[in-house]
Amino acid sequence: MTEPCDLTAVEARTLIGRKELSPVDLLESCIGRIEAVDHAVNCMVARDYAGARATAKQAEAAVMKGDKLGALHGLPVGIKDLTATKGLRTTWGSTIFKDHVPEADGGFVRRIRSAGGIILGKTNTPEWGAGANTRNAVYGATGNPFNPAKSAAGSSGGSAVALATNMVPLCSGSDMGGSLRNPAGFCGIVGFRPTPGAVPSESRAQGWSGLGVEGPMGRNVADTALLMSVMASDDAGDPLATSVFGKQVRTPGDFYPQAPVDLSQVRAAFTPDFGFTPTEKHIRAVFAEKTALFRHRFGQTADATPDCSGANEAFEVLRAVGYLTIQLDRYRNRPQDIGPNIRANVEEGLKYSAADVARANELQTQIYRRWQAFFRDHDVIITPTITLSPRNWSELYPAEIDGVPTRTYFHWLSLAYAVTLPGHPAVSLPVGLDHNGMPFGLQIVGPRGGDAYVLAVAAQLEAALAGDARTARPLPDIAKLKAAGPISAMPGFIGFA
Q1: What number of other Cβ atoms are within 10 A of residue 33's Cβ?
Q2: pLDDT for the residue numbered 255
Q3: What does the CA dihedral 451, 453, 459, 464 come to, rounded to 10 degrees?
Q4: Whole-angstrom distance between the N-terminal and C-terminal Cα of the chain?
Q5: Which residue, 216, 315, 323, 322, is CA-closest to 274?
Q6: Is the pTM above the cut of 0.90?
Q7: Of residues 45, 149, 127, the one with CA closest to residue 490
Q8: Which domains does the chain have, with CATH numbers?
Q9: What are the pLDDT digits (tens) for 120-129?
């Protein structure tokens, strides 16, 4: 029998609106799942059971009175621990803020609450979101729901695991080098990187940089789009949230597919590596096998990639300079309180000159313009989400792929940052398992500003693949996780390395 926590967000919200599901019962089911399995994976690291219960009772009363209900009314939500939540511990995975309790919510958290969402807890992240292995010195490591000894990726690994194990129906994430797409791929859920500015952020230190964005995560495309419709907004606090004076530019419909897309009219380009990423031979083989099962559904297909020349150099420089903005003061004044990833990023940034930054900006612009030319002939690009199969979280980062050393500790994320640089929207869709029995994610990249379009394409592909065990979304073994020992007993659980 399906428990309430196993319902999708859209299913649960529909039943709540019909008075067929109590928000209180849904919340208690989610709390029960957290208590039953989180010891094995360590993803829901700060919890507000008392506050959530009070809000759920209010939500139930509103339903019974026949009040107008918001899009997320009665739905429990997990918030990645990089965004402030009023009255709920927010650490950024940093020991400096291990006891920090904000006095105000971040912008999209306010919108989630206004839409009726119930903030149940905070999901784990690496220190300051640095790196794609969800592990820190405050809460420890987060394990993959398909094998807790393996990485959940990151930096939104806690959110991905909470969704995969049905602790909550919706979670927030953030993304620079694939920080919500990569864990979605590793954990068998959906993660969406929106167009920069679509989800405004008043807290981004480099307000004019579109590298880092916040976005929604869900178990399927419809749930993810639902959360996106609430997170998106006009907001003068974010300079990338461009506006027209006196008009509302962003509406929920801009980011929620209003009509199905006919895949037979879609021109799809397929590439395992964008011409430069160190994609594992195993993943290349899995990608070829999976895509062979559905390529015929598209109107036109091609093995092609936009020219991404200079992507490694541009991303490495711009990323490091961003870390100087955020972390230089801590590096200088509290070096004992920052981990190796933060330290490495700051030290790299200090090596670059103004000429290096100018060249990186020029390369990014050239990549962007080549992408626009490419999309004149193609509607979407399809790639693997991530270059390799999950490895143990005890490995800080993959130092080699197929025996070849990686350029940097984030080089293995290059399938994701190839998309970050031109600023296109992209979704990671779960497509069965790889040869190691771990989730395989497919990245679908849309045209400039095509947020609703790429979600609609993903929704149609998801529906087409759901009936085949080789391509359907994989599910972790909840009973096995309940019976598993605590991840905290594994060597190296707390710390950076």
Answers
A1: 23
A2: 74
A3: -150
A4: 42
A5: 315
A6: yes
A7: 149
A8: 4-489 (3.90.1300.10)
A9: 999 999 999 9
